[in-house]
Amino acid sequence: MTTPQPTASVQTVLVVEDDDDTRAAIRELLEEQGYQVATARNGRDAEQYLLERATPACMVLDLWMPVMDGWALAAEINAGRLPRVPFVVVTAAASYWGYPTPPGRVVRKPASPSRLLALVADAVRGNA
Hints:
Blueprint: E1 12-16, H1 20-32, E2 36-40, H2 43-52, E3 58-61, H3 70-78, E4 87-91, E5 106-108, H4 113-125
Parallel strand pairs: 1-2, 1-3, 3-4, 4-5
């Protein structure tokens, strides 16, 4: 199986994850595939990033975080209070009831690297 590659121009992916080790592992995985990676420790940090910087091509989003969780960040995006960013949910949560993302863009922790890369590539390309 070939690993999905980012488009010709460098694409930025924002990784929003409170666990330092998980955030670092996802960052390394994405950088190895040629993505530029920005990180945030929680939804509030991600919110600030989205308001102050260029909109990333995609966001990898954890659900359960302190300060502002992924649910609240997604609600802000979907309400139009933040720039529209396609996102991939990476979570240990067992249920996604009411979560505003296509079910195909959710991967359970521990995330399979190949599945995560495929979902990020799809999100960057704008596929469902």
